[in-house]
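From the shared-data thread, chain only:
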Amino acid sequence: MRVSLKNIIVPSIPLAGLLIVACCGLWLSAFFGARIITLPSQSTTLLHNVQTYVAPNTLISTLLSLSFTLFNAFLLAQLNNRFTIIRTRTFLPLLVFMLLMSTWNETHTIDGSHIALTLFIFSLFYFFSMVRNKNNSEQAFMGSFLISVGSILINPLISIIPVCWIGFIMFQSLTLRTFLASIFGTLAPWILYLSVLLLLNPSYDFRQAFVITPNIDLTFSTLLLPRIIYIALITVIMIISIIILYSLTHSDAIDTRNKLNFLVLLLVAFSVLSLLFMSQFVLFLPIIALVYSLLISHPLTLKQNNFTGILFLIFCVVNIAYVISKYIQI
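Structure, as C-alpha cells:
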C-alpha cells in the first residue's frame, strides 16, 4: 500500500481550509477541555505587564494567541515562498507549525512569546536577504534590532545574536560593517527601553529589567511519562528528517543549503536555551515550532515515498496521541 502526501503537500483550497480549521479546533479543545496552563516562573517586567491585561486561561487569551499563531503561520508561508527554502510549492510547513502549536497547549496563553516569534520571523526576512552581499548593514541592523526588541519580552533571546553572527559567516556576508551594525541594532532597543523606564521612574532598579537566570534541570523528575515519550519521539522524527534533508541538499542551490544549515543551527541553539532556562522553556516553544516545521517539511516535500509518508503519519499520530494523553490521569 502506497502512502502519498501529494494531496497534503499541494492541497485544494477546501482541503487546506479544512486542515487549518481542524488545527484550530484542536487548539480550542485545550481551553474547553479545561487543561490549565501554568505561566513560567520567571518573566520579564514587560511580559508580566502584558499578561496582566489579558488574564491567562481565558477565552480571550486563547483566541488572542490563536490569532497571533495564524498570523505567524502566514508569515512562515511567505518566508518559505520568498526565499525558496523548499524549492517547490508546499503546504506542509504551515500545517506542521499549526499542528505543533495546537498540540503544545502551554503556548496558548503566553502572548508575549507569540509577539517575540513575529519579530523573529521578520528578522529572518532581513537575515536571509543578506546572502552573498557584504553591503547589507541595514539588514544586519534591522534583524538584530527586531531580535533585541523580542529579548525585552524574553531576555534569554538576546543569546541568539551570536548565533546570527555565525549565520552571517554562512551567508558570506560578515564584515566589520555588518558586525558593528548588528551590535548597534542589538543595543538600540535596550537603550531606548531603559531610558523610558528611567524617565517614568528615576528610582527604578535596572536589575529588575533583566531576567537571565539559568535554571538547568536535567533530571526530568517533574515531567510525566507521556511528555517524556512525546519529546523523545518528535526528537527522533526530527533527526531522521535532518538525515534525509542532508541527503537531498546536493540538489539545492548553495544559498538554500546555507539557509537550511542556519535553521539547523537555530534549532540546536534554541533547544540548548530551553535546557539552560527550564523555568522559561515554554517561551521558546513557538520559535522552536517554526524552525522545526521548516526542517521537517523539506524532506517530506522533496522525497515523496512510502517511508516519508509513513514518517509524516507517525508524526501526526504522535501529536494527536499526546493531546489525548493530557486528558488521562497518570
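The mean pLDDT is 85.
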